[in-house]
Specification:
Layout lengths: L1 H15 L7 H7 L4 H12 L3 H19 L4 H7 L5 H12 L3 H4 L23
Length: about 130
């Protein structure tokens, strides 16, 4: 079970740094493997690439911030690692189906990509 704990430690690092630059080498070190191997294992188990997982988690957090706080779109875009409001709006619209400005409105439903965690369940089918 130590392997599972290390994988979850890597995910904790990702979650704690969604509003900062995420160093894939640090993520991999937390899981005690190389960056290449971590990304391969992650993609195999999660059925999504590490980069895509991080992008979806950032856009989920950005959507929550836009809906629940009085934040400007440009500030949220920069906070979650986008170089411009235009690139943020494009990514936001692709995931959520509405622009960030529309996403700020009350009653708008946005998609949520939940945090994943790893666990092993051993089941006896006798």
């Amino acid at each position: 079970m130590e392997w599972i704990d290390k994988m979850n430690s890597a995910l904790d690092y990702i979650e704690d740094n969604l509003d900062k630059e995420i160093d894939y080498d640090v993520v991999a070190r937390k899981a005690c493997c190389s960056s290449y191997n971590f990304q391969r294992v992650f993609s195999f188990i999660a059925d999504v690439s590490l980069g895509e997982y991080i992008r979806r988690r950032r856009l989920t957090k950005a959507a929550l911030e836009l809906q629940n706080e009085d934040s400007r779109v440009v500030d949220v875009a920069l906070k979650y690692g986008y170089d411009s409001p235009v690139s943020f709006a494009r990514a936001f619209t692709n995931l959520h189906g509405v622009t960030p400005s529309e996403g700020k409105k009350e009653g708008v439903n946005l998609k949520s990509y939940p945090r994943i965690s790893f666990k092993i369940t051993i089941k006896d089918d006798w």
